[in-house]
Amino acid sequence: MAGVTSRPGADGRVADAVAGHWVDRLAPRGLRPYLRLARIDRPIGWWLLLLPCWWSAALAALAGHKPFPDPAHLVLFLIGAIAMRGAGSTYNDIADRDLDAQVERTRSRPLPSGQVRTRSAAIFLVLQALAGLAVLLQFNRTAILVGMASLVPVAIYPFMKRVMSMPQAVLGLAFSWGALMGWVAVFGDLGAPALLLYAGTVAWVVGYDTIYAVQDIEDDEIAGIRSSARLFGRCLRPAIGLCYAVSVASIAAASTLAGAGPVGALGVTLFALHLGWQVVRLKPGDGRGALRLFRSNRDAGLILFAGLAADAVWQGLS
Hints:
Layout: H1 22-25, H2 32-37, H3 44-63, H4 71-100, H5 118-136, H6 141-149, H7 151-160, H8 168-175, H9 178-187, H10 192-213, H11 217-223, H12 228-232, H13 236-258, H14 262-281, H15 287-295, H16 297-317
């Protein structure tokens, strides 16, 4: 693919990528910088974008008395999450390429490291966005309009770290949009369970992204990048705990309104215990540990989805 430049002595691997990922071992060398730009070597991003979609689809199944979330919707959300996570990351990296060059963890990314030119990244962004649009067009008209509205927080997020002390709040608005999509794709409207799920997911995102930001506190201070980790300071763990408490309370209310029973409540409880474990294990000065805890939110989210989906199955068999 045109637009890749060489960097002597560098293997191109991004600092916080999954070690030994297939992108670094098996992908054609000319494609690797673009796969890294799309965060394919860091799959936690698309998992965290996907899971609220699946939660919402499970709530819709419960409310609609269906035995399981729509399998076609689950597959479409998977494809769309990968495409739009890639597009959003590419856009973010284009906007942040100068800031990323000042932070140890991010200066190895394809744009600041010189592996990909800005013009080539912009073309790649358009291609990924078109793939996401193709997925969105498979849903009903209301879902399409709701999905298009997500572009507003996505577009402004990269610039918020320059002007507000907690840009994670805007990231939460963007990354939680799937909590609306699973519901509206089934019912064609935004009911109270979907709105409560969205609110809880925003709080979840703020919590886990604050953990993620622990890795960069010192570099962010030097570069003038704002984050909730810097804002909370000595109150870091209580603040994350509060975010997670709001998340659990909102999601529990959403599941109750959608008609979840004991199995769904068990899923919410296990989800809450996982989040509490993260808070207990977090050490503000441990960047590697913070990254592990951040990544563990995939497991927390899968636990919640499994509980809600199993409840739909249980009620369908009852």
